Amino acid sequence: MMKILLLLSAFTLGTLANPSPQPSEVVVLCALHQLHEQAPFYTYADLNAAIEKLHPDVLAVELTPADLKDKVEQKNKREYQNSVYHLLRRHNWTTVALEPEAHAVPS
């Protein structure tokens, strides 16, 4: 059974990650953005531990493809530079960006 971890989104990726008819387990893990710094009950270390315990085959994140590729520091979603990016350097997880690329608006 393929295990998919969705960070911050209730989006189903079963057929994207595994086109076979086998069922996929989808887990939605909520993050507190910068509030992890103020919540002693759910720190960045706790978020790290939760993600590692789930050991996802696919990690879907609330980032644009460019931000994910370049590991861009996030102003509000600080769990990425304080947790997720470190985990991605250590693990060979398939990672999917869920946000669309921002396009320049013609003037």
Task: Explain the overall architecture.
- The protein is α/β, with parallel strands linked by helices and about 110 residues long.
- The chain has a single domain (about 1-95), classed as Rossmann fold (3-Layer(aba) Sandwich).
- The chain is built from 4 helices and 4 strands; from the N terminus they run βαβαβααβ.
- It has helices at about 15, 45-55, 65-70, 80-90, and strands at about 1-5, 25-30, 60, 95.
- It has a 4-stranded parallel sheet.
- Strand 1, helix 1 (about 15) and strand 2 (about 25-30) form a beta-alpha-beta unit.
- Helix 2 packs parallel to helix 4 (about 80-90).
- The radius of gyration is 14 Å and the shape is globular.
- It starts with a strand and ends in a 10-residue tail after the last strand.
- Mean pLDDT is about 85; it is low at about 10-15.
Annotated CATH architecture: 3-Layer(aba) Sandwich
Low-confidence stretches: 9-15
- For the record, the CATH class is Alpha Beta
The side-by-side strand order for the widest beta sheet comes to: 2-1-3-4
As a percent range, the share of strand residues is: 15-25%
Structural class: alpha/beta
Largest sheet: 4 strands, parallel
Shape: globular
Helix content: 25-40%
Distance between the termini: 49 Å
CATH fold category name: Rossmann fold
H/E element order: EHEHEHHE
Number of helices: 4
State the total count of DSSP E strands. 4
Instruction: Estimate the mean pLDDT confidence.
Output: 84
Q: What Rg, in angstroms, do the CA atoms define?
A: 14 Å
